[in-house]
């Protein structure tokens, strides 16, 4: 008998039995359930189990934090429960039955950007390294950059742009591929569609605003502007879905014996044509409008208020999953303004929530079981991934969550008020400073110190108030 046999039986009983499990899978530290009736799960009893480090519900999934032994526990659980192995994609699809319309829309947006995020993070780090090499005067008594002082560093600076350009300028290729992958259509067609949006024969998107003579395809009766959509998000999303739905429809009406020939032909050509004639220009205008509204709001006389609200509300957005929408806005800001003033606030929010967890590590330093969750969660937060900290610690106690939100709001006001801009999306935590434009690094550092210090102090203070007492009483813990 495995050491996980009894805990697995206990968890199965407390989630409502096998008949209440629609789908179950696991990630690095958590069991992920899609339950037929979430109300049948005895959440309080599950939280009291020795093997359980915490629970939460997100995106239609009931998640149980087990820790690093989750894979072995999962194997024992599925054997006892009699439920089959299921992929994470299947779990996500099943979870959508528990979502409302808004949650489903956000889930679709998340499904598009999640596979691309590793590339975006790498691209942000590369631009950050280029920042250090080519923008900071750090040699020859602070009068020269590394790139100016050495041919090696100049060569490295130029070489790194090859990768950064591939990630950000050719982003539409990744987006249209990701949509075809999500929709279950032919992925290579999605890639080809994306390439047609950024082809070298088109006028580069960055050259369009000042261009006096835009090349055209001349069909005699009509002309189409040969404009590229480098780094454009919304045109790529619109075009990708048109291609996917067109292919899905054609599969239904074209006989299978000739589908390999005619489905790609009649899907790709109309999709490319519609993308350049209709969707591209419309998507460009929509993207420009969104980015202008956000940028104008953050740089206006009331920018501090916008920053305070966003800084305070970003962590709750993560809980709902709505934070995925900021990826598209950040990328649009980068294409319109050569940088983003939104992303620095996201990095600061992650740091603030991590600092609140550090305060809880200090307060509960004698609770060894909790530290199995809190220590990795704090590290994860400081590196840009907040979910373990939010659901494993901060939301359970609530007062550190509020402390983190407050510290984030103050840091966001400082960041926006001093005009901090990032070159790109990067690691959304302390290493994110590499993505900040060089003239703004000092002020971002000050904002980071606020995001570290304020939540820590505020968490310790709130722990000694009635809010803290109520939290510890609710969790059956002794307040330090």
From TrEMBL:
InterPro entries: Glu_permease_IIB, PTrfase_EIIB_Cys, PTS_EIIC, PTS_EIIC_1, PTS_IIB_1, PTS_IIBC_treh, PTS_Sugar-Specific_Components. Its EC number is 2.7.1.201. Pfam families: PTS_EIIB, PTS_EIIC. GO terms for cellular component: plasma membrane. It is found in: Cell membrane. It comes from the Bacteria. The keyword Membrane applies. GO terms for biological process: phosphoenolpyruvate-dependent sugar phosphotransferase system. It is a multi-pass membrane protein. CDD domains: PTS_IIB_glc. The keyword 4Fe-4S does not apply. GO terms for molecular function: kinase activity; protein-N(PI)-phosphohistidine-sugar phosphotransferase activity; protein-phosphocysteine-trehalose phosphotransferase system transporter activity; trehalose transmembrane transporter activity. The chain crosses the membrane at residues 105-129, 159-179, 188-207, 227-246, 258-282, 302-322, 342-363, 375-397, 409-434, 440-463. It comes from Gracilibacillus salitolerans. This is PTS trehalose transporter subunit IIBC. Coiled coil: none annotated. Residues 5-87 form the PTS EIIB type-1 domain. The gene is treB.
């Amino acid at each position: 008998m495995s050491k996980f046999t009894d805990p697995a039986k206990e968890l199965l009983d407390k989630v409502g039995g096998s008949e209440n499990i629609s789908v179950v899978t696991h990630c690095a530290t958590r069991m992920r359930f899609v339950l037929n009736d979430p109300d049948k799960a005895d959440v309080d009893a599950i939280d009291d189990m020795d093997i359980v480090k915490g629970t939460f519900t997100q995106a239609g999934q009931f998640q149980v934090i087990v820790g690093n032994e989750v894979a072995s526990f999962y194997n024992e659980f599925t054997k006892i429960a009699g439920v089959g192995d299921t992929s994470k994609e299947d779990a996500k699809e099943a979870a959508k039955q528990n979502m409302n319309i808004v949650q489903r829309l956000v889930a679709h947006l998340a499904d598009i950007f999640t596979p691309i995020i590793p590339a975006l993070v790498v691209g942000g780090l590369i631009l950050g390294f280029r920042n250090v090499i080519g923008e900071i005067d750090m040699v020859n008594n602070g009068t020269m950059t590394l790139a100016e002082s050495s041919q090696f560093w100049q060569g490295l600076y130029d070489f790194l742009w090859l990768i950064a350009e591939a990630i950000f300028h050719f982003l539409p290729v990744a987006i249209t591929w990701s949509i075809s992958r999500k929709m279950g259509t032919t992925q290579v067609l999605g890639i080809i569609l994306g390439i047609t949006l950024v082809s070298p024969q088109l006028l580069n998107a960055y050259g369009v605003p000042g261009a006096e003579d835009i090349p055209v395809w001349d069909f005699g009766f009509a002309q189409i502007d040969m404009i590229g959509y480098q780094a454009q998000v919304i045109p790529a999303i619109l075009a990708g879905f048109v291609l996917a739905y067109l292919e899905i429809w054609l599969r239904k009406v074209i006989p299978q014996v000739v589908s390999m020939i005619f489905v790609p032909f009649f899907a790709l050509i109309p999709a490319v044509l519609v993308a350049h004639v209709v969707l591209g220009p419309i998507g460009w205008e929509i993207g420009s409008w969104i980015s202008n509204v956000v940028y104008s709001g953050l740089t206006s006389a009331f920018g501090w208020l916008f920053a305070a609200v966003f800084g305070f509300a970003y962590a709750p957005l993560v809980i709902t999953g709505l934070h995925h929408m900021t990826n598209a806005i950040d990328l649009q800001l980068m294409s319109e303004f050569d940088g983003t003033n939104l992303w620095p606030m996201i990095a600061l929010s992650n740091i603030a929530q991590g600092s609140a967890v550090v305060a809880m590590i200090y307060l509960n330093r004698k609770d060894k079981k909790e530290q199995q969750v809190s220590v990795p969660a704090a590290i994860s937060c400081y590196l840009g991934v907040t979910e373990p900290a939010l659901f494993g610690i901060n939301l359970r106690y609530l007062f550190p969550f509020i402390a983190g939100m407050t510290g984030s709001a103050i840091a966001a006001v400082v960041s926006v008020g001093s005009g901090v801009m990032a070159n790109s999306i990067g690691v959304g935590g302390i290493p994110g400073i590499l993505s900040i434009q060089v003239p703004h690094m000092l002020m971002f550092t000050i904002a980071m110190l606020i995001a570290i210090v304020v939540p820590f102090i505020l968490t310790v203070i709130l722990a000694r108030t009635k809010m803290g007492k109520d939290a510890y009483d609710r969790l059956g813990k002794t307040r330090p």
